[in-house]
Amino acid sequence: MPSTDEPRRVEPGRSERLQKVLAAAGVGSRRVCEDLIAAGRVTVDGRVATLGDKVDPAEAVIHVDGERVVTDPRLVYLAMNKPRGVVSTMADERGRAALADFVGGIEQRVFHVGRLDADSEGLLLLTNDGTLAHRLMHPSYGVAKTYLAEVPGPVPAAVRRRLLAGVDLEDGPARADAVKIVDSVGGRALVEIVLHEGRKHIVRRLLAAVGHPVHRLVRTAIGPVTLGNLKPGRIRRLHRTEVAALYAAVNEPDRPRPGGRRPTVRRR
User: Fold this and answer.
1) Which site among 29, 47, 62, 223 is 20 to 30 Å from 209 CA-CA?
2) Residue 239 in contact with residue 77, Cβ under 8 Å?
3) How many other β-carbons are positioned within 10 Å of the β-carbon of residue 113?
4) Is 171 an annotated catalytic residue?
5) Which of 35, 72, 101, 117 is catalytic?
6) Block mean pLDDT (10 aa), the chain, length 268
7) pTM tops 0.70, yes or no
């Protein structure tokens, strides 16, 4: 389970030295962070930072070597291996197992990014970062999801070509970005399928349409974040580099957040 350590308290609107903020975010020691700033490798709100800058860690948009560094300690990013039979809601009015049953040790209120149906398993992201969550779910950003499906085998090469070319479904055409036959033994096959669509049951419907209904479905990756060896029902905190990679996957611009208050940068 993720650490339940209480996050560092930061009062919004209060500025701190940039190197202190970076160190608290796990970039390195204060000395290392000072060297990064002096080398021009840190930007704040789209401009190159200098030693002596002060920032509001709850508001500033900071990059190191072009990678986003989230410095607001109130933000939480989690990866969960959702077991089969668990519904993708925080609570279920019918009393079924839900996500809230697995995040009891997290102080902050989080919500799930997208869904997996109850019969599907695998990677689910949870966060309280609304900006990132919106971009990850919005189809215009095209964040790929990778699934491993167990289907009746063998799977002919023509099926792979059909999935890549596109299949007409009842709500419009759909196609896979990539398809790989991972294994095929007897009457069983494992198919890895990558797509960026988020329509309901899209993987199951695609494979059923080409004559290979899914027996078991596991999501193994969302963009750059992978399930790895995380056990079913377990949760882990994302590393800061994974969060940076998620922001990169949604093409985050190196500028203040649209519609938001411009973060304050003060000189010493």
Assistant:
1) 223
2) no
3) 22
4) no
5) 117
6) 42 80 94 96 95 93 94 93 93 86 83 92 95 90 95 94 95 95 93 91 96 97 96 94 94 43 37
7) yes
